[in-house]
Amino acid sequence: MSVKTPRLIITSGEPAGIGPDLCISLINHSFSAELVVAIDPSLFAERAAQLNYAIKKPVAHVAINEPPTPGALKILPLKTPYPVIPGQPTPDNASYILEQLDTAISGCQQGIFDGMVTAPINKSILNEAGIAFSGHTEYLAQQTQSQQVVMMLATQDMKVALVTTHHPLRQVASLITPSLLEQVIRTLNKGLINYFGQLKPTILVCGLNPHAGENGYLGREELDIINPTLNKLKNEGLSLIGPLPADTLFTPKHLQTADVVLAMYHDQGLPVLKFHGFGKAANITLGLPIIRTSVDHGTALDLAASGKANAGSLLTAIEYAIYMAQNKP
Ligand SMILES: NC(=O)c1ccc[n+]([C@@H]2O[C@H](COP(=O)([O-])OP(=O)(O)OC[C@H]3O[C@@H](n4cnc5c(N)ncnc54)[C@H](O)[C@@H]3O)[C@@H](O)[C@H]2O)c1
Ligand SMILES: N[C@H](C(=O)O)[C@H](O)COP(=O)(O)O
């Protein structure tokens, strides 16, 4: 059921990155939602001081049994096990990062929060700590036992979704099976209908190979996997175009025919989206039982505590989460 004033939990992410900086900057913005930041309060205060941040509004700790207060910024206090040095992440704080995510997931599942918005984390630090972790998207899918999720990045006039997410390029072609492609397209189609008010979304599908395989002479995935899957789903009434060569698909002539582009792999689709709208885009996970949006950038360790981090993408991610919470079926 949709909610008028959503309560969103923001995970502040890698404590040595720009996540805390961006969360602190929220204090001077107004939203039609209550924002609860999962962060160590000492880190919040310390980073605010490092940034010379003028905190104009008081920050209260969250009282989750109360109805959301529109426009409020609250803190859900957690504790970093090790001291935080801006720009220098340590695996010793990996448990703090996972605690943020687990708290947000269970809070959303229990209905305490209407959605979660994630600030960036450094995947390699979690792996260094012995936690196999390829991304929030995969972790959220696993923790919520979701069958199929889809990563979609969205900016005002472009949406790009991915068939495969965080995998070595060497593995990508073998991961693209008819079954995966079918599930991804169904999840994407349903997500756009449920959360974005589109009655019959049109999905523009990239080929995998150069020139979409050049009739099989530059790869057979289009002929053997993509075409048959698209035909099956088109016969069911889904609006699908492609597979088209990815190099020319991202031109106005094609983009204007569709609501979303489906790219076969991470660096086929995301460089175009980020070139077009870096800092103004959000990363949305479709197919979860909860609402989750995120920033379009990473931990930017070079900018932590510098005051130079741009909060545009976090603001966009929050606006998308509010929109989705207010429009969900
Ligand atoms: N949502 C996420 O959790 C997320 C997303 C992408 C990357 N990452 C992780 O972040 C780490 C670093 O990745 P990277 O270096 O490829 O990408 P990055 O986005 O951290 O940095 C790329 C460049 O963009 C700049 N930049 C990034 N965000 C900015 C902002 N808000 N304002 C101004 N400039 C900004 C950085 O200074 C850097 O020059 C990796 O471990 C990666 O896995 C996490
Ligand atoms: N693929 C994302 C991007 O490049 O912006 C990023 O790695 C974050 O992914 P998760 O939300 O799964 O962590």
Automatic annotation (TrEMBL):
Residues given in the record as substrate binding sites: H136, T137, K274, N283, R292
Enzyme class (EC, first level):
oxidoreductase
Q: Which reaction is recorded as catalysed by this protein? A: 4-(phosphooxy)-L-threonine + NAD(+) = 3-amino-2-oxopropyl phosphate + CO2 + NADH
The EC designation for this entry is 1.1.1.262
What InterPro entries does the entry give? PdxA, PdxA_fam
Alphabetical UniProt keywords: Cobalt, Cytoplasm, Magnesium, Metal-binding, NAD, NADP, Oxidoreductase, Pyridoxine biosynthesis, Zinc
* GO CC aspect terms: cytoplasm
Q: What is the UniProt remark on how the cofactor binds and its stoichiometry?
A: Binds 1 divalent metal cation per subunit. Can use ions such as Zn(2+), Mg(2+) or Co(2+).
Where does the protein principally reside? cytoplasm
GO MF terms here are: 4-hydroxythreonine-4-phosphate dehydrogenase activity; cobalt ion binding; magnesium ion binding; NAD binding; zinc ion binding
Pathway field: Cofactor biosynthesis; pyridoxine 5'-phosphate biosynthesis; pyridoxine 5'-phosphate from D-erythrose 4-phosphate: step 4/5
Q: Where, in this chain's numbering, is a divalent metal cation bound?
A: H166, H211, H266
Q: Name one Pfam family in it.
A: PdxA
Which cofactor does this sequence's record say it needs?
Zn(2+); Mg(2+); Co(2+)
User: Where does the record place it?
Assistant: Cytoplasm
Q: Name one GO biological process term.
A: pyridoxine biosynthetic process
Domain of life here?
Bacteria
Q: What else is known?
A: The active site is located at the dimer interface.
Give the record's family classification: Belongs to the PdxA family.
HAMAP family noted in UniProt? PdxA
Q: What does this protein do?
A: Catalyzes the NAD(P)-dependent oxidation of 4-(phosphooxy)-L-threonine (HTP) into 2-amino-3-oxo-4-(phosphooxy)butyric acid which spontaneously decarboxylates to form 3-amino-2-oxopropyl phosphate (AHAP).
Record note on quaternary structure? Homodimer.
Q: What is this protein called?
A: 4-hydroxythreonine-4-phosphate dehydrogenase
Gene that encodes the chain: pdxA
